[in-house]
Amino acid sequence: MPSPDDGSLEDGLHQDGRRLTPQRKRVLELFERRGSGCHLSAEEVHQQLVDLKLKVSLATVYRTLRLLADMGFLQELELSEGGRRFELADDDHRDHHHVVCIRCGRTEEFESDSVLAAGAEAAQTFNFKLIESSLNVRAICADCQN
Ligand SMILES: [Zn+2]
Ligand SMILES: [Zn+2]
Predict the structure, then answer these.
(1) pLDDT beyond 50 at 7
(2) pLDDT tens track for 114-136
(3) Which of 77, 87, 90, 137 sits between 20 and 30 A of 27, alpha carbons compared?
């Protein structure tokens, strides 16, 4: 299978000192193909790999996703009832927030300067060094309200 040009990825991994196995790469490619703003659960990633005729267990997919998140390639969203979802970690796409349907897990993004400002202010009040401010809104989507 031909692999896309991923020179920058390889450079990053080299610095990190860890290897991206073909399977990890395959998982990352699923996210890259769909671009930023796509939020997938482990089950959805697993289903897509199965559709590609790859034999991989859900437990392995979980481990792979956690590892890719640790390595900084993916960002993990913890959404109580919606479970965990993962999205590409993208510097241009970092300061956004999520509204999540607690029934079906549908996830939409929004931006809000006031959330960012509130986070910055809170960190300053307590003399913390700010890393990020993100808001997850739990809701029920239009389809699930019926
Ligand atoms: Zn997002
Ligand atoms: Zn829903």
Answers:
(1) no
(2) 999 999 999 999 999 998 888 98
(3) 137
How remote is the CA of residue 135 from the centroid of ligand 2, in Å? Answer: 19
Q: Which residues pair with 86 in a beta bridge?
A: 40, 76
Mean pLDDT of 67-82: 83
Ligand 2 centroid – CA 55 distance (Å):
30
Domains of the chain in start order, with CATH, are 1-90 (1.10.10.10), 95-146 (3.30.1490.190)
Instruction: Please give the structure tokens belonging to residue 136.
Output: 């997850």
Q: Which distant-in-sequence residues (6+ apart) come within 8 Å of 12 by Cβ?
A: 72
**For 87-120, how does the pLDDT look when each residue is reduced to its tens digit (9 = 90+)?**
998 777 778 899 988 888 888 999 999 999 999 9
Distance 43 CA to ligand 2 centre (A): 17
Give the list of residues 6+ apart from residue 109 with CB closer than 8 angstroms, or none: 37, 96, 97, 98, 99
Question: 81: CA distance to ligand 2 center in Å?
Answer: 12
